[in-house]
Amino acid sequence: MAPENTGTPEPKIAATSAEKPGRIIKVSGPVVEADGMRGTKMYDVARVGKDNLIGEVIEIMEDTATIQVYEDTTGIAPGEEVHPTGAPLSVELGPGLIGQIYDGIQRPLPRIMEEAGDFIHRGVSVSSLDYEKQWKFTPNAELTIGNDVQEGDVLGTVQESPVVLHKIMVPPEVGGKLEFVAPVGEYTLKDVVAKVQTETGTKELTMVQKWGVRTARPVVKKFDPILPLITGQRVIDTFFPITKGGTAAIPGGFGTGKTVTQHQLAKWCDADIIVYVGCGERGNEMTDVLREFPKLLDPRTGEELMKRTVLVANTSNMPVAAREASVYTGITIAEYYRDMGFDVALMADSTSRWAEAMREISGRLEEMPGEEGYPAYLASRLASFYERGGYAQVLGSEERKGAISVIGAVSPPGGDFSEPVAQNTLRIVKVFWALDSDLADQRHFPSINWLKSYSLYLDHVKPYWHENVAKDWFQLRQQAMKLLQKEEELKEIVKLVGPDALPPGDQAILEGSKMIREDFLRQHAFHKIDTYCPMEKQYQMLRIMLEFYNHTVKAVKAGIDIEKVRAMGCIEAISRMAVVDNSGFEPVFDKIEKEMSEEFKILEGS
Amino acid sequence: MTSKNIEYSSVQEIVGPLMIVKDVKDVTYGEVVRIRDPAGKERLGQVLEARSNIAVIQVFEGTKGLNTKSTFVRFLGETMKFPVSEEILGRVFNGTGKPIDGGPEIIPKERRDINGAPINPSAREYPRDFIETGVSTIDMMNTLVRGQKLPIFSAAGLPHNKLAAQIARQAKVKGEGESFAVVFCGMGITSEEANFFIEDFRRTGALERAVLFLNLADDPTIERLIIPRMALTAAEYLAFDLDMHILVILTDMTNYCEALREIAAAREEVPGRRGYPGYMYTDLSQLYERAGRLLSKSGTITQIPILTMPDDDITHPIPDLTGYITEGQIVLSRDLHREAISPPIDVLPCLSRLMKQGIGEGSTREDHDDVSNQVYAAYAEGKELRDLIKVIGEEALSERDRKYLHFADEFESRFVTQGSDEERTIEDSLTLAWELLSGLPKAELKRIDKEYIDKYYPKKEE
After folding, report:
1. Structural domain contains residue B362
2. CA A473 – CA A370 distance, rounded (Å)
3. Is there a contact between A357 and A350 (Cβ–Cβ < 8 Å)?
4. B326, B357, B388 — which closes off a domain?
5. How far apart are CA B91 and CA B106, in angstroms?
6. Is the preceding omega at residue A446 within 30 degrees of 0, hence cis?
7. Do the domains at A22-97 and A473-605 have one common CATH topology?
8. Interface test with B, best of A25, A50, A114, A284 (most B CBs within 10 A)
9. What domain range is B287 assigned to?
10. How many structural domains comprise chain B?
11. How far is CA A147 from CA A167, A169, B50, in A?
12. Among candidates B122, B147, B271 on the partner chain, residue whose Cβ is nearest the Cβ of A290
């Protein structure tokens, strides 16, 4: 399947007359069968019926092709024509992606609104990128006409948004002698900005590449991710970190905060580019992102968060086949920015809806169902999707590295993680943030269960923390984890004998772990300060809390009643550390620490 | 379409609610068919599968009395439509869209496709207008906003209808006198339940500003699949063409899902969880997602679907899939109901996802979010202690824990409990919450900003 690489400025996925049309013989929901389709390739796009609906060939039997249609098929009749386009489902990649909101097959929703109004009607044909808009193209100064260029080489740059310097690259599978590169100036996406003499003749390149969504864009090689993706969320950064290029899953029943967690990561994580795929979820949630992101400023660049974000929205009531495509559309866009050398974070909310779309299509095809009706290829599809993430050396003669972190939400039925989508996901991803409905009921957010969750990146990110924050980070984290683990065991005993029957040392553990739970792990996503907690502050908070615990252990050992410790004034001050201003929290923390030691001194002296 | 004038008598097979007709021409997917039964009476159906010469039809009024010999089918060449105009206000319709209140037929301004179309996410406006329902547990802890879809998860024998009627009666937006109407859609409910709502609407004079769609328990099951779509089409017309604020009550969604399962079984589809079809999530979302607010329009659609959880099980596919689509849920509890706490709303599993935007300074009160969080945390802790004292006895608790225990009791008996005609303003609810919270030591109120504690913590004579 050779992807089409030239950027012909036509409306997206136009029907070509190159092949003879087939005819519909059966319509059943989103699945259409047509005959007279011999020669059509698997996963090619076809235009279906008189409204030219977009569909994709998913099964071929002699003359008959089965097509999944990305739009509503009501009113389509057998006998109508089907036109194969001869090309796979592709996205257009070029300047203008940033800040845009697309449906599952990369049609810009604002353009659809201009064409069709407030509601999405089918058969709307709009191009994915704006071919009229002028972009200032600056050629790469290191290029020499007549020299060879290869795939991935940078031809020039376009300032796509204040924070995104978009690299115009030689598309994959193209290389040869550079014949021409355009001088600095304003160009549209239709204009040729470079010519390369390839083995098959001169290739004219515009600023647009096309790429089939179901094929991963190639890289030179992949590495182990080593840098943390800093999210500003304490339970994530300190306890269960994810890396740039890492993969994570957030499973949780409804109301446990999957979407809020995904939104928090999209807002605050330190990736260069965010691709947010709303796959089969609520319309209002996408609207929330659309309305809120332009108002929020990135703490690192001071620019609007929307200036680094691409949204793909296929809400639950939009056609189910396009939902299946939406995650591929999203990851292909992510790969394109990775190829420029950016760190990209892709959020897919929710991968369960994607799996269900697969199941629905599979059911219509009457395929033999696997577990819980999901198709047997569920596991391999999930695996190959997550595998498109990673930290890699990208194509190009100069060495560039880029990363895609993939964070997938999973919505298990009844909140039961034993179901196929959650289980197959967990076999692949390296970080597991288990959302817990009991915590959610107590309004403990993020409701990430600290005993069930894990991150396999701890060793990867340890050097970063130790160099940039503090040498004893890992040790503190382990101590805190041990406390929480111990608390769980003690809780069982408390249920039988009551808290007062515990020995003083154990009571100290309960106090210490409670503080970590309530004042460190809990974080208020909608509080103007607490929504983002810098690493240094996370470390200091944890350090002070553990110091409190160590003091408490000493005090109770010396025979001081735990009630007296509980009545200390510093506890309340510690509980409010999270909301101390992020810039200049140090003197406040110092003061808290000092007061704490003094209080303990007085306690011990009495 | 050419098929329009041909009447086919080539019915080949009748299975459950489905009918297969052969030798047909130019049938389109989803079009409506008119069926003449052997007795000469007409009923409606819809094409579920269109092949070159065969059509699979789902018959709306049931297949009872049909045969393969003298049943005639005519394809109408269009999808199911509902006539809309202002005249639908105050009227009652059945599952095929016919008025059943003895009044005249509707003279339509327009006939709309009942399936609607998805709202473009970029055309949506984020819901943020606080609706005061007068129910403390909703207003303060699970705030409803205009354009939200907030279901009531109930179970057999619980007073969900009373709660829904109370919300419909009391719901208002502060300081605005805009036009408001209720669209009520009953699916498979008993005539007693239907009468309860009709009487309640009549008693409060809301009937003239209501549109009722009724499919009673003895009406054809299959109509349950189209009646909510008609109701929502009516709601969309009133909201987005006539700029009204519409509250849609859909009850009982469980009956809707049962009907969906029945059709799926008759079509011999691969069943999903508990026999419900794999596409039930998508199907439900096509109803629930029709709630919302648009940038370009001033009207809104707020939905309160009611469902009864089979066997009180919140993980059952019906509440589960609903919860994944709707923006929160209000959960009724049998335990509270047994303890005569009314309305028996169990706040812990309740949620309103759109709450954060609808509350706070300017809409309710600055301390709203913090107080709500604090009450949640304290009640959760109190309830946990209740389990504990079952084993170790209350005496083993510390002073502090006893206060939490007391808080949980007070919360249920004073805050949750309220009369079905009792309207509390949001200020009333907040004041009551502060009064209950003042039973806890000040230092325990960690989730409330210090500033608000100083301002609102009740001053006690000491």
Report:
1. no
2. 45
3. no
4. B357
5. 9
6. yes
7. no
8. A284
9. 82-357
10. 3
11. 19, 16, 59
12. B122
Considering the entire predicted model, what is its pTM? 0.92
Strands (E), B109-202: 110-113, 130-132, 144-145, 152-154, 172-173, 180-189
Distance from CA of A502 to the nearest CA of B (A): 12
CATH architecture assignment, domain A221-457: 3-Layer(aba) Sandwich (3.40)
Residues B372 and B327 in one domain: no
Confidence band, pLDDT 50/70/90 cuts, at residue A420? very high
Q: Which of A129-133, A292-296, B180-184 comes out lowest in average pLDDT?
A: A292-296
- Return the amino acid letter for B402: R
Residues of B in contact with A413 (CB under 8 A): 273, 315, 317, 320-321
Q: Which of A259, A254, A149 is nearest to B351 (CA)?
A: A254
Name the token pair of A184: 């600095």
- The rounded distance, in Å, linking the Cα atoms of A367 and B380 is 47
**Residues 169 to 188 of B: which have CB under 8 A from any A CB?**
none
The region of weakest confidence among B203-212, B248-257, B268-277, B287-296 is: B268-277
Q: Which two tokens stand for residue A579?
A: 């909301």
What are A568's two structure tokens? 């200390």
Q: What fold, for A135-207?
A: OB fold (Dihydrolipoamide Acetyltransferase, E2P) (2.40.50)
Phi, psi dihedral angles at B389 (to 5 degrees):
-70, -20
* C-alpha span between B286 and B78 (Å, rounded): 20
Nearest residue, CB atoms, B29 vs list A27, A360, A442: A27
The top-level CATH class assigned to A473-605 is: mainly alpha
Give the number of other CB atoms < 10 A from CB of residue B176: 9
A442 interaction partners in chain B (CB closer than 8 Å): 348, 376-377, 380-381
Give strand pairing partners of B293: B300
CATH classification for the domain delimited by A22-97, as one of 3.20.20.190, 3.40.50.720, 2.40.30.20, 3.30.310.10 = 2.40.30.20
Site of tokens 């795939």: A151
Please tell me the distance from the alpha carbon of residue B55 to that of residue B21, in angstroms, as a whole number: 5
Residue B196 placed within a domain? yes
Single-letter residue type at A448:
I
CA atoms within 13 A on the CB side of B329: 28
**For testing the chain B interface, which of A25, A26, A71, A74 should be mutated: the one with the most B CBs within 10 Å?**
A74
Is residue B363 included in any domain, yes or no?
Answer: no
What distance in Å separates the CA atoms of residue A104 and residue A88, rounded to the nearest whole number?
15
Angstroms from B144 CA to nearest CA on chain A: 14
- CA B411 – CA B380 distance, rounded (Å): 11
Of residues A306, A296, A317, A2, the one with CA closest to residue A163: A306
How far apart CA A113 and CA A509 sit, in angstroms, is 58
Query: Burial, B415: exposed, middle or buried (Cβ in 10 Å; 0-12, 13-18, 19+)?
Result: buried
Q: Which of B322, B127, B118 is nearest to A284 (CA)?
A: B127
With a cut of 60, say whether residue B462 has pLDDT above it: no
- B209: its two tokens: 């500003």
**Quick one: B344 and B372 in the same domain?**
no
Q: For B346, phi and psi rounded to 5 degrees?
A: -90, 105
Query: Domain holding B25: CATH number?
Result: 2.40.30.20
Residue A403, SS3 per DSSP:
strand
- Cα B451 to chain centroid distance, Å, stands at 38
- Say what the ipTM of the complex is: 0.89
Q: Which range, of A218-232, B112-126, B129-143, B259-273, averages the lowest pLDDT? A: B259-273
Tell the residue number behind the tokens 């339970």, with chain if given: A235
List the beta strands (DSSP E) in A303-383: 309-314, 343-349
Helix axes B280-288, B253-266, angle to 10 degrees: 140
Structure tokens of A193?
A: 């900005």
Contact yes or no for B184/B178 (Cβ under 8 A): no
Residues on chain A touching B398 (C-beta within 8 angstroms): 499-500, 563
Query: Which of B320, B335, B357 is the last residue before a domain boundary?
Result: B357
